[in-house]
Design goal:
Layout lengths: L1 H17 L1 H4 L4 H13 L6 E5 L7 H8 L4 E6 L2 H14 L4 E5 L12 E7 L8 H11 E12 L7 H10 L13 H10 L2 E15 L2 H10 L3 H4 L4 H14 L4 E2 L2 E15 L1
Parallel strand pairs: 1-2, 1-4, 2-3, 4-5
Antiparallel strand pairs: 5-8, 6-8, 7-8
Helix pairs in contact: 7-11
């Protein structure tokens, strides 16, 4: 079981390092990142840990929120993500932010280091989620808060893409749990010692302008691991077939994808 967990992490680290350059072009992440930071109600001067920071969709609005007297530390399992984000932090001249490579299940920060722990759309990948949540609680100051986003219901109009992936054998299961139901999230957080859990939802009608933008999204998220199993020839055939099937979704302004997310905010007990 432990070796399987390590293998999942190795795959995730590799996939997200390889997708670091295209990941920032996914337009819905900054929208949900702003929402997460706003919902968390982070005050000026706060110390924030952004877990699985990616390309900074949560980190940058958090850095703006805390201001120059605060501090936002982003960590990511994928060194490529952390490296790219750190370069962007330097480019923007944000002295109150940093990004580094770190395994969220093995935090190296002292106890009570942060006022807030944030995490956008990543908890489902943690092989040892209870351990991670307990460590998040450890690094939070007394009465500190955790705020996370998770995906809720899928847009059934796009179920054909999963069917096509299964036909080609382009699937690698990297998720360790589903967190798409409020009661399930509540259970995890309660077991980890968090209280006053509040869960809100947000829907977004995401419009991909063309097939290539949609494909960039699919090629940049965890599902890339399955697509990379295909030979170059099979991947080309898969993409061609997907582009043909996606035409069913086409509307005058592009390809609509209904996204629904949950935002959970809880307090350290």
């Amino acid at each position: 079981m432990e070796s399987n967990s390590i293998n999942k992490k190795d795959i995730l680290q590799g996939v997200f390092t390889r997708s670091a350059s295209s990941y920032e072009r996914i337009r819905y992440f900054p929208i949900f990142g702003e929402w997460l930071v706003e919902t968390a109600q982070i005050p000026k001067g706060a110390k924030v840990l952004d877990v699985a920071c990616g390309r900074g969709a949560v980190l940058f609005p958090a850095a703006e929120r805390v201001g120059p007297r605060g501090q936002v530390t982003g960590i990511d399992l994928a060194d490529g993500m952390a490296r790219e984000t750190e370069m962007e932090i330097e480019r923007r001249g944000l002295n109150q932010a940093e990004a580094r490579q770190m395994d969220a299940e093995n935090l190296t920060f002292p106890d009570s280091s942060f006022d807030f722990v944030l995490c956008g759309f990543s908890l489902q990948f943690f092989p040892h989620l209870q351990q991670a949540l307990s460590d998040f609680r450890r690094v939070l100051k007394p009465s500190g808060h955790i705020a996370v986003t998770t995906w809720a219901s899928d847009d059934e109009r796009w179920n054909w893409f999963d069917d096509l992936r299964n036909e080609y054998g382009a699937v690698v299961k990297l998720g360790s749990q589903s967190l798409d139901k409020p009661e399930e999230i509540q259970r995890w957080f309660s077991q980890a010692g968090f209280v006053y859990t509040q869960i809100t939802s947000k829907e977004l009608d995401m419009v991909f302008l063309n097939e290539e933008e949609w494909w960039n999204m699919e090629w940049s998220i965890s599902g890339r691991a399955g697509l990379e199993k295909l030979s170059a020839e099979d991947l080309e055939g898969f993409k061609a077939e997907a582009f043909e099937k996606v035409q069913v979704q086409k509307q005058a302004d592009g390809f609509h994808y209904q996204l629904e997310a949950l935002c959970t905010v809880a307090q350290r007990q």
